Amino acid sequence: MSQTLLSGDARLPIYQRLADVLRAEVVEGRLRPGDRVPSESELCERYGLALGTVRKGLEILVAEGLFERFHGRGTFVRRPKFDSSLFRFFRFRGTAGAVTVPEGRILRRTTETVPGFIAKALAVPEGSEGISMSRIRLCDGEPVLAEEIWLPLPRFADFLSLEIGKVGDLLYPVYDAECQQLVARAEEQLTAERASEATARLLRIEPGTPVIVIDRLARGYDGTPLEWRRSRGRADQFCYQIEIR
């Protein structure tokens, strides 16, 4: 097997250049979430590197959360699980009492000028057009979350042509399948406020009722901002939970 020349800045440590090459394979779609990464021995042979160098490069990507290791199975591209974050903050249960992922229903989808603070978050020029959505999430037909969502154009232009009724409960798989935009990680900020008349109408509560607000900025594997989202849920359903080790 002929060796491949390791690309990148020659001034960087070799293990860092290897990490950069493997990260690029994920960003460019040659390695997908759930894919097995070439083994340490395969990478040693491919690039003519020492085992310790390869391990150090993989450790960088594991520490970043891009890869995950399973004993006896190997290293894999991590599959992000974003709906699990909702269950850190809210307890959504169906009529049978089991924890359930809320149904997603898009109420409005249009193109509008992106507000200034959202344009800054999405790293698009002020005055840019974006996709604006209003979405409700329900458990057993009862609204539990009201969401505002913004997507940059033209990156998500194909999303506009999809039938709203066929989008489904989870948006990120649709972004990937229809727009080739793969969400890898997200940053969240939690605050509280009193429900406006518009929020109260969506959640079927009284105006002024306390609600929890979760602002999320979703990014791709290369760090590019892909989606801005603001979710509002009733404070009496809020229950923060985290495991500390």
Automatic annotation (TrEMBL):
Residues 12-80 form the HTH gntR-type domain. The keyword Repeat does not apply. The keyword Transcription applies. One of its GO terms (biological process) is negative regulation of DNA-templated transcription. Pfam families: GntR, UTRA. PROSITE patterns: HTH_GNTR. One of its GO terms (molecular function) is DNA binding. InterPro entries: Bact_HTH_transcr_reg, Chorismate_lyase_/UTRA_dom_sf, Tscrpt_reg_HTH_GntR, UTRA, WH-like_DNA-bd_sf, WH_DNA-bd_sf. It comes from the Bacteria. CDD domains: WHTH_GntR (cd07377). Keywords: DNA-binding, Transcription, Transcription regulation. PANTHER family: MANNOSYL-D-GLYCERATE TRANSPORT/METABOLISM SYSTEM REPRESSOR MNGR-RELATED, MANNOSYL-D-GLYCERATE TRANSPORT_METABOLISM SYSTEM REPRESSOR MNGR-RELATED. This is HTH-type transcriptional regulator FrlR. It comes from Hartmannibacter diazotrophicus. The lineage of its organism: Bacteria, Pseudomonadati, Pseudomonadota, Alphaproteobacteria, Hyphomicrobiales.
